[in-house]
Inverse folding.
């Protein structure tokens, strides 16, 4: 199996696209970009020069992934989500590449539809950015964020359910995902999955 | 008279498009979609599989109408308005079609430019969603909504004027549209047009 | 030197494009538009009939510049920034051209990514509209605006640095840009550059 690019899209030279990935209509992948396997690149997507995108990333319609934005495995970008890479753009004062700010979206995170991500932030693993939010600073792993500016309104499981930390166990709060039954622990305002190492 | 599709756009098989409808540049209409007559479909619009769109609907540039979103007659979608159809998307946990949430935009409603409509809501007849709003729940007919999250800030007439309910008549508040002179009544927080049945 | 238009884009008749300007993929420039020199027009941009755009204007991906929107020299429009030109659109009550509201973005101003500009406003010289903002009224020159609705949160220099007005000189507040060292003066809530006329 190999990848698919719709006839209306442009893929520039020196691009790497993983097996099973689909690039739909009116999209443009710039030189040197690396896209993992089993990704979906929607309509009118733009992937900038040398951008790196992990495996199984879903990029919905109208998303532009600019230079210095990195999307790890299993990231979901909703339609019309917007990234940036210059914090204070002025047409008469163009920035050099080394003045761009980096944005890192860690594995499994969700960027909701029409959300705006101001550059220079790290969005933690499995964070969930609600639709229409404006993210202005770093986001904790598993954090549920929304609003303008986005503020934290709880925690989300890996499969996308809001967690209700009410049970206590050995001094920490514990919750389980309503669909997967996976257990999570909340301690010192950091959430993690209970696995063999953490089990008690 | 029949419909027009610009040469740069794609219309898949089994699509129905009404007479007088225009599909402009770089748009894609998916299989089985049904679009009424006298619609305008702007640049870079996406109409998903089996979506149903009424008559005289205006869809401005960059709007994607996803599966399970329905637009009734005379709906106006401003540029870059964003719909969704999964409430908690995660790339590693794809949803089945029957897990998508429906969105219904009823006749005559306006979705402002760059507004975000979170799935699962009904937007009432002639509701008016201001530009840049984020709609998170059902919207009453004729309601004027804006903000993030969108809250109600008044009532709009069918022709798009804000109503000023100050006159009282038989225990209900009455207002008339400043351009059409049509009269409306507000009772128990529900607004309606005064017609032969309601006239007093 | 002359201008460049990517093969996937459409430029209609009677368009004027200045030397050095680049029009990238999947864009459409309508009849009668006038675009200055050294502009960058990104992917999926739409320039409406008779729109006038100055020199050295950067228009990022997915921006539509509608009729009666004017962009002066050195304006920066971030990706997916959204303009409008009808204040109360209704599909069943289409507006005539003379009912559209004008929007003027003055020289050097920045419209942040995914910002929404409600029509009928003037955005002053070198104003800076933060990403994801919704602008609902006129913006002062050099004002830093953000939020929904956008409110002023300070002042920006021409080269894009936030100014800290703490020094006083002859009864007015004075600040200097951290990169250019240019001095600015704030008096009666109006900011200006200190030049030969204002120097003291």
């Amino acid at each position: 199996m190999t990848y698919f690019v719709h006839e209306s899209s442009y893929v520039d030279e020196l691009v790497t696209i993983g097996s099973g990935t689909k690039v739909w209509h009116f999209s443009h992948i710039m030189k040197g970009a690396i896209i993992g396997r089993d990704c979906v690149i929607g309509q009118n997507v733009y992937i900038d020069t040398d951008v790196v995108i992990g495996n199984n990333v879903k990029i919905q319609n109208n998303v532009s992934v600019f230079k210095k934005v990195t999307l790890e495995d299993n990231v979901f970008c909703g339609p019309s989500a917007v990234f940036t890479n210059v914090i204070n753009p002025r047409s008469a004062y163009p920035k050099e590449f080394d003045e761009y700010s980096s944005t890192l979206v860690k594995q499994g995170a969700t960027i909701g539809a029409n959300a705006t991500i101001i550059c220079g932030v790290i969005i933690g693993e499995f964070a969930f950015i609600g639709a229409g939010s404006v993210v202005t600073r770093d986001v904790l792993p598993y954090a549920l964020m929304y609003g303008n500016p986005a503020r934290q309104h709880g925690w989300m499981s890996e499969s996308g359910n809001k967690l209700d930390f009410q049970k206590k166990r050995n001094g920490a709060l514990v919750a389980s995902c309503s669909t997967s039954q996976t257990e999570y622990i909340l301690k010192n305002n950091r959430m993690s999955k209970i696995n063999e190492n953490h089990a008690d």
Observations:
- The longest strand of chain B covers residues 151-155.
